[in-house]
Amino acid sequence: MRGCPPEWVRGLYSFAALPDLTFFFKSDLEVSLKRILDGRPQLKYFEAGMDLRLSPDPYESFRIFQGRILEQYLAMSTEFNFLVVDANQLVEKQQAVVRELVSKRLALSSFHRAERPPEPVPAEAPRKAKAEVAVP
């Protein structure tokens, strides 16, 4: 994306184990843009791909840049079997989908929450001796 050969990038990460699950939260460009701008007044320089000089307009540059990123993620999603989640939905719906996908892939019942040790009873702080105040 930023001029690095894909083979070089893959080489950097060749030592890493493949994850059991990888989620790809895919949303429409306009949804992503709206969510970003709801949280702050403008796009960030690199987020918009302005360093790539795709367009002098940050919003157009963002659209072009994010389109390129989307192409890469879509290619990776088939190669690495990403679980694609419709990120246009409300976050609560996305969470329900993720929980369902995780429960289908992992035997969650085999994971038990560890018992917490009892909370230690705080020791009383040593009491300071009251200072004698001389009354004139």
Which descriptors would you attach to this protein?
single chain, 136 residues, mainly alpha, Rossmann fold, two-stranded parallel sheet, 4 helices, 2 strands
Quaternary structure annotation: single chain
In percent terms, what proportion of residues is strand?
Answer: 5-15%
Which class of secondary structure composition applies to the elements? Answer: mainly alpha
Number of strands: 2
- What is the number of helices? 4
Distance between the termini: 83 Å
Strand order of the largest sheet: 1-2
The radius of gyration is 26 Å
Mean pLDDT across the residues is: 87
One letter per element, helices H and strands E, the order comes to HEHHEH
State the CATH topology of the domain at 18-107: Rossmann fold
The portion of residues assigned to helices is 40-55%
Ranges with pLDDT <50 over ≥5 residues?
none
CATH architecture of the domain at 18-107: 3-Layer(aba) Sandwich
Instruction: Name the CATH homologous superfamily of the domain at 18-107.
Output: P-loop containing nucleotide triphosphate hydrolases
The top-level CATH class of the domain at 18-107 is Alpha Beta
Query: Main beta sheet, described?
Result: 2 strands, parallel
Principal-axes geometry comes out as extended
Describe it:
- This protein has 136 residues and is mainly alpha-helical.
- It has a domain at 18-107: P-loop containing nucleotide triphosphate hydrolases (Rossmann fold).
- It is 40% helix and 6% strand.
- The chain is built from four helices and two strands.
- The chain has helices at 6-12, 29-39, 58-79, 91-105, and strands at 23-26, 83-86.
- A two-stranded parallel ribbon has the order 1-2.
- The protein is extended and about 75 Å long.
- The protein starts with 5 loop residues before the first helix and ends in a 31-residue tail after the last helix.
